[in-house]
Design a protein that fits this description.
This protein is an all-alpha fold and 296 residues long. It is built from 14 helices and 2 strands, in the order αααααααααααβαβαα. It has one domain. Helices cover 61% and strands 2% of the residues. Strands 1-2 form a two-stranded antiparallel sheet. The longest helix has 23 residues.
């Protein structure tokens, strides 16, 4: 995926192309519909995945969102907002109004989460095992950090994922969340503070005085079912890291400590959406959508 297609940054993103696709879809063009879905589906899926922490839930939510978006496409008014602003308003509202999902029922807060990590045995990886366990250690790190995000309230989670991981332009974020840029920055700062305070006190990645280390926890995570080294949740079906999709930095005001935290999360994989073709098939076979758009 090319960085210039990142819909969360203003640099070089082509809003006119979106409007052209929307017009073609409303004229019944299936090809235009496929292009629009392919353009945004991976971002929608990855946002949902980071907010919900569950691949199946993120896949389901991505499909639900697209059915809702395409069903209401005729309501989009280019005179009032850019398409991506309208699109992600729909997405954010859908995510924020979901019933409690699987991982949200399991991870109930920072106390619960870090107690779980502390209670996971720390087992040394022998020198001769390091190569075999290398990817499992990376999987453990991302799984643990993604679990930390789940300790935030859902709105905080979404704002953190957008503002810190995907480095969304703050003015664009304000439009998408229907708040002021100052309010977005305030909410993002609060999410950072809540997350980083706990990480500083408990996580060895950012504070070497903390005893917790990813390699030592990996075997314990495997034993407890958190990490599956054969069927990896995070380090499978991806071609890029989140930071590789960024073409503009919005964190110049961050201090050095906070930048270290941010870079750890931005190094997470940006996963492919495996059900892409299934999604298009469902959209194209949906009778309500077909009637509404008179698809050819």
């Amino acid at each position: 995926m090319e960085a210039q297609l990142n819909p969360f940054q203003n640099t070089r993103y082509n809003d006119v192309a979106d409007d052209q696709l929307v017009r073609s879809i409303l004229d019944g063009d299936k090809v235009g519909l496929e292009q629009l879905v392919k353009k945004h589906q991976a971002y929608i899926f990855n946002v949902a995945l980071k907010v919900l922490h569950n691949v199946a839930d993120a896949e389901d939510v991505t499909q639900e969102i697209w059915i809702k978006v395409i069903s209401n496409l005729s309501k989009y008014d280019p005179g009032k907002a850019k398409f991506r602003t309208w699109l992600y308003r729909v997405i954010f509202n859908h995510i924020l109004n979901l019933k409690k999902q699987k991982s949200e029922k399991l991870i109930t807060g920072f106390d619960f989460f870090f107690d779980f990590v502390d209670q996971t045995p720390g087992l040394e990886i022998a020198a001769e095992e390091e190569q075999d366990y290398h990817m499992a250690v990376e999987e453990s790190k991302v799984a643990c950090m993604s679990g930390m995000i789940m300790c935030l309230a859902r709105e905080q989670r979404l704002i953190y994922v957008m503002g810190e991981m995907f480095e969304i332009d703050h003015n664009l974020a304000a439009e998408m969340f229907s708040i002021t840029p100052a309010n977005f920055r305030k909410k993002l700062s609060r999410a950072r503070k809540d997350l980083y305070q706990w990480m500083h006190n408990r996580c060895g990645l950012v504070n070497k005085n903390n005893p917790c280390r990813c390699p030592k926890k990996t075997k314990g995570f495997i034993d407890r079912g958190v990490v599956d080294p054969v069927n990896m949740k995070w380090h499978s079906d991806f071609k890029a890291r989140i930071h590789e999709l960024s073409v503009a930095k919005v964190d110049e005001v961050l201090n050095e400590r906070d930048r270290v935290y941010a870079e750890l999360f931005r190094d997470h994989p940006f996963k492919n959406y495996k059900k892409a073709y299934e999604l298009l098939s469902k959209i194209l076979s949906n009778k309500t959508i077909s009637r509404a758009l008179d698809l050819d």
